[in-house]
Amino acid sequence: MKRRIFLKGTLAASATGMAANAGLLASRAAAATEAAAATGATAAEAVTAEAATVAADTVSTAFSATTLEDTLKALDVTPEESDQVSLDAPDIAENGVVVPVTVKTRAENVSEIAIVVADNPTPLAAIFTFPEGGATMASTRLKMGKTSNVLALVKSGDKVLMAKKEVKVTIGGCGG
C-alpha cells in the first residue's frame, strides 16, 4: 500500500468525521430551521427560512445545468416569446469574453430577469431579482465560447416572457 495515499485518505476521513461531529455537515434546510429556532423565530418564519433555502438550491441547480433544456427544467419555467421583452446584444461579438447584454421589459410585476446563453457549457449566465415595483432592466457582460442564441427570461407574475437573439462570436476578433 502506498503510504502517501493511505495518509491522505486517513486525514480526509478524520476531517470529515470531526466536521460531522461538530455539526458542520448538517443540511441547509436543517441549519435554517435551527437558526430560526435559536433566534426565537416562529414556526412560520422557520418554514420561510427553509423555503428560501430550497429556492437557493433550485438556483444552484440551474447554474450547474449543462444544457438549455436542463436549465429551463431546473428553473421550472416554460417561456413564451413576447414583444414586451427587448434584448440588446451585438449581432457580432469580436471578443467572446466580454459580450454586453441589456434586457428591458414593459411587463408589469417583474420579479426576476434571467439571461441564458444556449450553447455555453453552463447556459445560465445571470439571474437578477427585483423587489415589488422595482426596476425592469438588467445589464451585464457575458462570456460566450461560440456563436449561440442568448435568451432573456422575464418572470412577470405567473408567466415567463422571453426574447431571443443570436450572437455570432468571431475567433480572434476578425469581425466576421
Short description:
The chain is built from four helices and nine strands, in the order H-H-H-H-E-E-E-E-E-E-E-E-E. It is an alpha+beta fold and 176 residues long. Strands 1, 3, 5, 6, 8 and 9 form a six-stranded mixed β-sheet that branches. Strands 2-4-7 form a three-stranded antiparallel β-sheet, with no helix packed on it.
What does it look like?
The structure is a single chain. By secondary structure, this protein is α+β, with helices and mostly antiparallel strands. The chain contains 4 helices and 9 strands, in the order ααααβββββββββ. Strand 8 (148-156) and strand 9 (159-169) form a beta hairpin. The chain starts with a helix and ends in a 7-residue tail after the last strand. The relative contact order is 0.15.
Largest sheet: 6 strands, mixed
CATH class of the largest domain: Mainly Beta
| Cα Rg | 21 Å
Just name the CATH architecture of the largest domain: Sandwich
Number of helices: 4
Unreliably modeled segments:
46-55
- Number of self-contained structural domains: 2
User: What separation lies between the terminal Cα atoms?
Assistant: 58 Å
Give the ordered list of helices and strands: HHHHEEEEEEEEE
CATH superfamily of the largest domain: SoxY domain
Mean pLDDT metric: 80
